[in-house]
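step: validate -> pass
step: tokenize input -> pass
step: predict -> running
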Amino acid sequence: MQVQPAYAFGPFALDPAGRSLTLHGMHVPLRPKTLELLECFLERAGRVVTKAELIADLWPDGEVTEQNLAQQVFLLRSALSSHAAEAFVVTVPGRGYRFVAPVDVRPARDVPHSDLQRLYLRGRYHWEKRTRQGLSEAQACFERAIALDPAYAPAHSGLASTYMLRGEFLHELSDRAFPAARRTALRALELDPAQPEAHTVLGDVAFFYDRDLETAERHFDDALAIDARYRTARLFLAWMCLASGRFAQARLEMETALGDAPYDLPLQTALGVLSMFEGDGAGSITQLRFVLDLEPTFNLASYYLAAALCTRGDYAEALAVLETDDSAEWTQGSAAIGAFAAYRLGDLERGREYERVVEDYAARGEQISAFNRTAVAIGKRDIPAALAAISAGAMMHDPWLVFIPEHPLFGKELRCDPRYLRTLERIGLSRRSAYGT
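step: predict -> pass
step: emit ->
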């Protein structure tokens, strides 16, 4: 088999053997002739390539005009500029073109790149579902890709993202999931420092697990410096800003990301949550119902819609949302909101049923979020139990504690209690100590 080198430039990589251009492991579609043109430029990077040379390489057996070449140059520039702001191909008046970006020539892999790419893309597809089953299938895909090629950095980044979400969604104990996510992300960056997904994982681990917002923001900034359009980094940065009360920046990050992906369900859901945190209950409910109109089984939106209704005192409607949720997966968060709403309605039997659903997660060997236990306790107006849950959660690196200081569900009865403020200060979650505001 003829060995052809691979080329890396900016956030892109070209695999001539696999006939594919990728952006951080994701396929970038190019027409065959445009791909050939890019290969010509990469082989001669840094020097002027005349139009005659390019025409001879691209159309050796046919007669074409410079207009055909100009069209291919336009298509190549358009494809690259849609993903990166920097210029790659410049015109040298009267002479031709020059590829000006630094190019790293890498040895070809023995494993067909298309196989790795398919596994990675399949893993990303399942990861985007953000369900227990989806994350399990994503992990299997990324692990198979790593088994085929241990040096394939995107698969390590994807696996790190999967560990991270398993910890964030409480599918695995925080002390196992988040350290595994950090180790795997660091391995990805050893293989390829230009992996925005790996930097994003490190940011999320610092945010949720370490409660170190300064370090988290630095990692998110590193990811966006590599790829300003990497919307997962903007989404996670927005969640961090939301948790720290920086609502204007959170909205800016969300809306910037939505410019490239207007129908991204997690982003649209995050907008609804932001409105809830800002005190705009009506706007939050409208936005979250919009998400559920797009995808009725997106249970993250159902959960937050029920929470938004609870902040307005619409407890019966919140229960109706939870109990008509068509998603295949019930979460302990939804059960906790159900318990909150039922207890506030005075329906003790129903509240206890929901509370048992929450506590049943411990029997499965899973971590019960202190956030959820706090929500149940506040539903019963049991302040001492809420404070005990918060303190215990801090010891277990509970990821969702970061949202308690700003979350509107924990109203005046908790925030005005000096014991609550002292508890936040002690565990590093007061606004001053944790967020610097």
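step: describe -> The domain at 109-228 is CATH 1.25.40.10 (Serine Threonine Protein Phosphatase 5, Tetratricopeptide repeat).
step: cleanup -> pass
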